[in-house]
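Annotators were shown the component list below and the corresponding predicted structure, then asked to write short factual statements about the assembly.
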Amino acid sequence: MKLFFRTVISCIIMTAILCCGCAGTGAGRAAQPEDGPGAEDGSEQQLSLTGQGAAGPWQSMDTAMGTVVQQTIYAEDQEAAEDFSRQASDLLSRLEREEISWRLDTSEVYRANASAGSGEGFDLSEDLSVLLEACKELWERSDGAFDATLGAVTRLWNIDSWAVEEDTNDFVPPSEEELKQALSTCGSQRMRLVREELTESGSAAESDLAAIASAPLREENGQAGGCRLYLPEGMRLDLGAVGKGFAMEKLFGLLEDSSDVTAAVISLGGSILTYGSKPDGEPWRVGIVNPFDTSGSIGTLTLAGQWCVSTSGDYERYVEADGVRYHHILDPKTGMPAASDVRGVTILMKDGLLSDGLSTACYILGPEKGMELAGQYGAEALFVMADGRIEMSEGMEPYFTENQNRK
Ligand code: AMP
Ligand code: MG
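Structure shown to annotators:
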């Protein structure tokens, strides 16, 4: 489904419309851009396309990577905005299909998983090399709280299906024995990455779009070649905790290459990027969803220029069975949903991939260790605690305004 329109409609309402039909599950979003036409009044009146100012913003809504994608684009004209929006959607589909999906046999992660236990290793593209190196470093720095090798356990929980199946009444959590067996295949210490010269396939680019998508994630990480990956028997990668962050980095590349686009806010489920400046010079406003009432916000981040905001929370994706609620952020020590006195964590930083990975890690670690970890990466962190308190790093304070009317 894809909609493209210039309209006065609240982003909150848009998301709510797309999320209906998720009865019994917690499919939702963790943050929303408050910017955009009509964000304040929430009415659904549609404006005519003719006679409007040229710069926009133009809004589009789509689904990709298993989540709702909302784009607010400031561009030369509607054609330029539509053109960008289409390219962004294509890019997201391509990233999922060719790189990070563990489900699709067309993807690199699928093939890497299939190579587990062969002993021969698997040649990774530069993209996936940088991504997995970052994941391994995050695993180390988070004391194992973040672990991209949890695939066997996440499949056991069948997390992906929670967002799409309407009837989850029959959900049965995995047994202790099943979890123990799946956990025995996990552990990033056993994922080996060996840097090599760039392979032919790693440098091939069939189109401009493919060239943008296959460019190194960050210039300073632009090493000469990809890695050879060695996974032990049974190990399965799950990049669900960094996929949207990875996509944000790629979207920045596309934005920089799209000279007709002057500014944008793009929301991918729990991750949002801001880019450029609005024509009126006003800052971006990004609302952080209230975990206790997901139709409202606990507060707003006021941001100028390029930022990444990622949120992880137990209300984003969950399933209920026999009165017990199971959420999607797993403790690698037990394979169970992490027991935490945190409801949601928001990370603010310039790097998309790390903001996404850090929000997941910080949910498990809690405020004390989480803020210490975020600090190591120069990131700011905000925790919404189970008792309703908000804890945040000092550097977050200038950006955050609490919603005084929150429930
Ligand atoms: P996020 O919504 O970004 O916090 O990511 C949650 C997703 O990451 C889950 O749906 C799983 O696919 C995966 N995941 C769950 N627990 C972990 C963990 N401890 N480390 C890394 N990935 C995880
Ligand atoms: Mg994450």
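Statements collected:
1. Residues 1-30, 36-51, 198-223 have pLDDT under 50 and may be disordered.
2. The longest helix spans residues 352-376.
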